Amino acid sequence: MRVLGVDPGLTRCGLGVVEGHPGRPLTLVAYGVVRTSAHSDLGDRLLAVQTEVERWLDLHRPDVLAVERVFSQHNVTTVMGTAQASAVAIVAAARRGIPVALHTPSEVKAAVTGSGRADKNQVGAMVARLLRLVEAPTPADAADALALAICQVWRGGSQARLAQAVAAAARR
What we know:
Radius of gyration: 15 Å
Strand order of the largest sheet: 3-2-1-4-5
Low-confidence stretches: none
Number of strands: 5
CATH superfamily: Ribonuclease H-like superfamily/Ribonuclease H
Mean pLDDT: 92
Strand content: 15-25%
């Protein structure tokens, strides 16, 4: 199964593609970050995120998109930007018939590190270890996107296979 993980954000939106199956070694396909300026128009920023997510969907052809579930924060502006970036990624996947899975930050941390309270350094170190990298992917947004993809492979594998079978039957 190939998963594109998206750590949504307007200033930095992490993207990471992992391939694998539950119980087997994972393979890193690609990772990166979409960056936009906080001084740019909101529409331009969302368009930049959408364009890059669509490029990644077309280039890497994932079986499923894993997105961080937006959770409540004290900073409403940050929550709004995260939700907006998340929405454009979800819509881009939906246009292509790619199933979308949402995972909470604590669920992802627990899947990758064993603790739902792990910090960014712990997540990055475990992502590097699981993908057999010399060091953690940077910036942290990219490591978080890879962690989302890993979580989906491990925790959502059977759901993704079911969604793929349903999608394949619908196309026939």
